[in-house]
Design goal:
transferase, alpha/beta, about 40% helix, methyltransferase, about 210 residues, seven-stranded mixed beta sheet, Rossmann fold
Length: about 210
């Protein structure tokens, strides 16, 4: 198979909920870098993972316009809660309004600030963490998170293939590419982590804490 037909895939998976479709459209109309929004395929994947592992405490690093947080909330078990961290304080009002009016938004608790500071400050143990924040800090996030994660919990890391740039770090020397390449190596060799990289969109790494 030489190429992937995304239209075929999207027409043969569970449909995108209407409120998420509208949010995806608004993101593309009103925000810079709309490609950062997870979208239909990755959103259904996140909702599926939550339905499979049934986490009660979920942490998201990097909220952007809230699409992925609502996907994670969609299949959360009874009593489950999501804490989502966004560094851009200009997004606070928009996200607060979104979560107050969207299905599942009442299960989402928004934190504004730097994830490196907020991870130690939030007094929770995590069943699932979704990392989609500063690519240069992925290793630091892991080191801060592991003391708060039990064996059998999961981490999902986004953008781990980074448009294929991690395949050629001799050419691509920007801090994001080098950070993600170092992260991929770190996770693959970490004694407490088992991982697999899925070539979904920009690379999605599933990690199990041992």
């Amino acid at each position: 198979m030489d190429s992937i037909d995304n239209d075929y895939i999207l027409s043969h998976i569970s449909p995108e909920p209407d409120h998420l479709y509208r949010l995806y459209r608004r993101t593309h109309l009103n925000h810079l870098y709309p490609r950062m929004c997870s979208g239909h395929l990755q959103g259904r994947m996140l909702a599926m993972i939550v339905s499979m592992i049934k986490p009660h405490r979920v942490l998201e690093l990097g909220t952007f316009t809230g699409y992925s947080a609502l996907c994670l909330a969609e299949t959360l078990p009874e009593g489950g809660e999501i804490h989502t961290v966004e560094i851009d304080d200009e997004m606070e009002d928009e996200l607060t309004e979104l979560f107050s009016t969207s299905p599942g938004g009442d299960r989402v608790k928004l934190h504004i600030g730097d994830a490196l500071q907020l991870i130690p400050a939030i007094n929770e143990e995590w069943d699932l963490v979704y990392i989609d924040a500063n690519k240069r800090d992925y290793i630091a996030y892991i080191d801060l998170l592991l003391p708060r994660m039990r064996p059998g919990s999961f981490i999902i890391a986004d953008n781990t293939l980074w448009d294929g740039k991690v395949f050629d770090t001799a050419t691509h020397r920007d801090p994001q590419t080098l950070g993600l390449d170092a992260f991929n190596t770190y996770v693959a060799s970490h004694p407490r982590l088992a991982s697999v990289i899925l070539p979904l969109r920009d690379g999605l790494t599933l990690i199990r804490v041992e």
